[in-house]
Amino acid sequence: MMYEIAVIPGDGIGPTVVDAALPVIKDAGDAHGVELDVTTYDWRTERYLDRGAMMPEDATDQLADFDAILLGAVGHEEVPDHVTLRGLLLPIRKTFNQYVCKRPTTLFEGVRSPLRGYRGGDIDFVVYRENTEGEYADVGGREHHGYDNEVAVQSAVFTREGVERIVRRAFEAARDRSGSLTSVTKSNAQAYGMVLWDDVVDEVSEEYPDVAVERLLVDAASMDFVRRPDEFDVVVASNLFGDILTDLGAAVSGSMGLAPSANLNPDGPYPSLFEPVHGSAPDIAGREIANPLATVLSGAMLFEDLGEDAAAADLRTAVQDQLASSAAPRTPDLGGDAATAEVTADLRERI
Ligand code: ATP
Fold this sequence. Notes:
It is a single chain. By secondary structure, this protein is α/β, with parallel strands linked by helices. The protein has two domains: 1-102 and 257-351, 3-Layer(aba) Sandwich (Isopropylmalate Dehydrogenase), CATH 3.40.718; 124-252, Isopropylmalate Dehydrogenase (3-Layer(aba) Sandwich), CATH 3.40.718.10. The protein is 39% helix and 20% strand. The chain contains eleven helices and twelve strands. The strands form two sheets. Strands 2-1-3-12-11-4-5-10-8-9 form a ten-stranded mixed beta sheet, with helices on both faces. It has a two-stranded antiparallel ribbon with strand order 6-7. Strand 11 and strand 12 (272-276) form a beta hairpin. Helix 1 runs parallel beside helix 11. 47% of the residues are buried. Adenosine-5'-triphosphate (ATP) is lined by residues 12-13, 17, 73, 75, 81, 256-257, 278-284, 290-291, 294, 331, 333.
């Protein structure tokens, strides 16, 4: 089977981790007769600085017919993040209706959590982040720039359809896993959009009597991600809260460099996008020490979405085995001194 894959390495450590991970991902495909036909796009902040746009006007048309998209990272110290994000990643997520942002958090065997007392396998949950609206809606404006009476309005947008479809996916996931779902809001302070969210969770929960539902305010959820991360299984949250909580999840499970994500368009006909949770990491960009495993694991999610479960399993097994082996190379974020390329060379041998 052959798949057409668009690859956008992007900024900072994006090209480092994509260049390193792609051969590993391809190896896993080859082992199961799955061929990836890759087209690489140089859409990144350098392009914005040269030509005034992160990507061409017809970028989403160019991407629409691919089977999947793999992205490295977007962000650059010389350009504000809201410009780079709104110039590349957000239009792709929204145009392609990638309304599920699925982000697993796993403490792997052999990886040390900064939290005391947790061992490999103890932390294992998945966040379903709403990915097309909420606090990331491009609704608002600024007036009287630079004057004392300057005003900025930023509206969060919650639609019944938008909330229901992500909540439903999260319930399905909870049913497939251990049957418990945590819904995170801030409906004491956000009394419209987030109360709609709570109402929808109540309504949908009636269709899933076998799923136990816990409701947490985001401040309590943040504490509990630190105090009892082992008790979560499936977490569903708005665009902003999901974003913040998954960085925290990555941190408590050992490193930003291990956290993969999938931006899914579950209903077709558009491609889904796979990317590590981390950003462009300017503090280590260009040093070839970025951890490529989050991108490799994003590749596993890509295979899974294409229905190529055996290739996905091979990638995950190789990563798990590598992390469990004290002799295997590790990048500095995991306490080692290996370069990115050493980690992927070792993975290729394992596959
Ligand atoms: P951006 O503005 O693009 O989001 P950032 O620095 O704010 O960049 P991240 O890129 O997520 O956010 O980086 C957060 C921290 O995690 C940094 O210290 C970075 O070095 C570290 N980090 C992120 N990704 C990796 C990785 N793949 N390997 C090693 N360290 C990483």
